[in-house]
């Protein structure tokens, strides 16, 4: 029995690592594309770059909220419920769930797209330039819910590759359309920068079409496998259509709130920052728009690359925890909870500190030298705040996987209340750093409540997590110092020979610091065997490959 439990634990860890690897790769490549496009895009917008980026962010934050409402948490709910029925060998019920969910996805997509399109003048925040941006984004909401639902169906089968690859194709098509239209409108036609931004946001629709087409190809290739599983199901459970809809909706509503968690915090910033700063300063709108772009768009675009690591873990964890809960395997739940947290720490802490170390040259690479010092400092602070943001994404998903949806929403509501209370004083006295600080504190409170509940009712392998946290933190700090010294050293050499710190030089400095810091962290993690707790037998292969004793 013990051996079986160990084998089950190893299998679960392998599934989580494999699924996380696919989702992480898809998320990172997508986020990287979603960040690196800003270099040529910003060059082509010229003097309008910061204003265009701020407008893009103002529209996208509102769109993100409507998109989450349109998706309605259905993909994650479908993934969880499909995994639940698959664990019972009732694959036919999962197929019916998908079809019923498809009806809901199309309906919510149409309704939310219409509300966003015709309601744009009411939610533009007093900025008429936001209206055409929202109009262009409404088209994407028609398609994305169906695409996301199909991804959730694949994830319910523990098949993460289709989701990851379609995510990358979606982003590739989106970025290609953005860059082509920006170049034509701003460089060839010398047109309106507002219209160019509207075309850049319409790219979300183009990307969605490409992503959905990719999923369709995957489904056609695996259709026979799905049909075989359905034909060989137990077929002992019959669920009425009404009950299927009830299951989807009851599971989906909490996913809406929690899935929109970080977006809700961003909307709080969007609708309060300008008002508070007008009270605290005499800055004009253009200056405030630049400051808003620095913390809400520029730095956010980069830290979302690291937060995507947490999102990958979250997507993988939900169906696996649902299966363990269905089996009533308390020990497996405890081990999986511990594995999720350990993997999160192993990846997120060094990623966040690493980005903080290279914030200066990284900010120059993406956003040039305009207000470089302030932009770099904001990115450094944002990188630290990305840790509680990423943790919330992961552990709220764990709560959903364990059917603790209402409690997770309650804890998030408390964190949101803390954010509201702190928003005014933090922003008034700290400017662009204030919204980030209130977000960090609010999410830390929500995280503490969730972790306390999970520990009391499901438990963790505390010794493993304690040792892991101390060692990972120590190695991450050593990596941070090494990367920071590399940045300062190379900057000193470059300035000594009289070269300006432009984009190309900053890119070289960034890559050198990443290489130094990354190698140090990997070496220490493998040498100390702390990587074994996360990666299992794969660590031995890496040690042999790198000749580490």
Automatic annotation (TrEMBL):
What transmembrane ranges does the database entry give? 21-40, 60-79, 100-120, 132-154, 175-196, 202-220, 248-268, 302-321, 341-362, 374-399, 411-430, 436-454, 475-498, 504-526
- Is Zinc one of the keywords? no
Q: Name one GO cellular component term.
A: plasma membrane
Q: Does the keyword Membrane apply?
A: yes
Please tell me where this protein is predominantly located. Answer: membrane
Instruction: List the membrane topology term(s).
Output: Multi-pass membrane protein
Q: Which UniProt keywords apply?
A: Cell membrane, Membrane, Transmembrane, Transmembrane helix
Xref: InterPro entries: PG_synth_SpoVB, Poly_Biosynth_Transport, Polysacc_synth
Cellular localization per UniProt: Cell membrane
A Pfam family of this chain? Polysacc_synt
Q: What is this protein called?
A: Polysaccharide biosynthesis protein
